[in-house]
Write a structure and sequence with these properties.
Two copies of one chain form a homodimer. By secondary structure, the first copy, chain A, is mainly alpha-helical. Chain A has two domains: about 40 residues, Arc Repressor Mutant, subunit A (Orthogonal Bundle); about 130 residues, Tetracycline Repressor, domain 2 (Orthogonal Bundle), CATH 1.10.357. Helices cover about 70% and strands about 0% of the residues of chain A.
Chain lengths: ~200, ~200
C-alpha cells in the first residue's frame, strides 16, 4: 500500500506543497504537486500513500497546531473550551482545507489519538457513551464553521440602496467590531451550557 | 459596473457552470466558465459583474433552496429552528461552495432580504439589537459546519490496529447510525436553549 520509505523531509515538502495549493485554489492533485516540486508524478507516489495519504498528512500538519495541553485542563468543561479555541485557531489559518478534511475519513494516527483523548475527557466526566460523539461532532461543526467565518471580511454584509434592509442595518450597527469572535463565544457558551446540563441530567 | 444586459438564461447558464466547477474542483474562474460554455472570456464579463458577481449568483442560487416560509412560523424559536434546518439542507447539496460564500461579502439583494427577515424575527421576539448578529452568525457557523459534515462519509473515523483508541471505538460503537443528524440536533438544541434564556434574561 505504498508505505513511505523515504526521509521525513520529502513528505514534509509534499505536505507543504499540497497545503499551498489548497490555500490558493481550494484543492490539490498529485500531478500538480509533482509539477510544483519539479518531479515526475510517479515519484510523489513513492513517498505517500496516494491522494488519501496526502489528505492525512494535511490533517496531521494542521492538527499539530492544536495545543495538546488544552485537554489536560480541569474541570472537563475548561478542557473542552480551551481545546475548542485552539482547534478553531489552528484551522482558521487554512480555511480552504476545512471542506477537504471534513469530507474525508480520519485515518492519521496522531489525529485519532487526539479524538481518543477528547472522548476520554468526556467519559471521565461521566457522560453516557452514546452521547459523546454527537457532542464532539456538534462542537467540531461549530468550531470549523467559525474558523471559516474568521476568514470572512469584517464587513460581511454590504447593504445597498436597492435592497432596503433597515433592521439588518440596525443589528449590524449595534454589534460593532469583532463579530466573528463574539459569535463564536455565543456558540461555545451555548454548547457548554447544554453539555453541563446533559451531564447532570438537568 | 457591468450591469447584466442580457436574458436571464445566460446568467443562469453561467451560474450553473460555475456551480458545477465548484462542486467538482472547489473553485471556479471566469476563463474556465468561458471554456466550458465555448465562448470568449470577455463574453462572460458582458453578462455578469465579474468574479464577485458570479459568487453572488451562486449565493442567490443556493439560498433560493431555503424554504422562505420557515421564517413565518410562530413562535420565534420554531421559525429559527425550521429556517436553520432548511438552510442546512440547501447548503449540504453543495458543500464545496460553503467556504467560497462564507469568505465573500454578501451583496445579493434577495439574500440580504432573507437576513432582514431573520433579524426581524429576533427583534420582534424582543432580543436586544446588539446581540442579534452574534446569535445569527453563531447559528450559521453551526448550520454550515453541519452542512459540510453531511457530506462526510458515514464511517468518518477509520480505527487501525496501529493506533489503539479503545475509548473512541466505544463512543463510535455507542452512537450508531445517523451521527451527523444527531450532532446537528445537539448543536441546534443547545443554541435554541441558550437563545431562549438570553431572551428572557435567564
Amino acid at each position: 500500500m505504498g508505505r513511505p520509505r523515504t526521509p521525513l523531509l520529502d513528505r514534509e515538502r509534499i505536505t507543504a506543497t499540497a497545503l499551498r495549493l489548497v490555500d490558493e485554489t481550494g484543492d490539490f492533485s498529485v500531478p500538480r504537486i509533482a509539477r510544483k516540486l519539479g518531479v515526475q508524478t510517479g515519484s510523489v507516489y513513492h513517498h505517500v500513500d496516494g491522494r488519501d495519504g496526502i489528505v492525512e498528512l494535511l490533517r496531521e500538519h494542521i492538527s499539530a497546531a492544536i495545543d495538546p495541553g488544552t485537554l489536560d485542563a480541569t474541570p472537563w468543561d475548561a478542557a473542552v473550551e480551551a481545546w475548542a479555541r485552539s482547534y478553531r485557531a489552528a484551522f482558521a489559518a487554512h480555511p480552504r482545507v476545512i471542506p477537504l478534511l471534513m469530507t474525508s475519513p480520519v485515518r492519521a494516527p496522531r489525529v485519532l489519538a487526539q479524538y481518543e483523548r477528547a472522548v476520554g475527557v468526556l467519559l471521565a466526566a461521566g457522560f453516557a457513551p452514546a452521547g459523546i460523539m454527537p457532542l464532539l461532532i456538534a462542537l467540531e461543526n461549530l468550531v470549523l464553521g467559525s474558523a471559516l467565518d474568521l476568514a470572512a471580511p469584517e464587513t460581511m454584509w454590504e447593504l445597498t440602496v436597492g435592497a432596503p434592509t433597515p433592521r439588518l442595518a440596525q443589528a449590524l450597527a449595534a454589534v460593532g467590531d469583532g463579530r466573528a469572535d463574539r459569535a463564536f463565544d455565543v456558540g461555545l457558551t451555548a454548547f457548554l451550557e447544554h453539555a453541563r446540563r446533559l451531564r447532570t441530567g438537568g
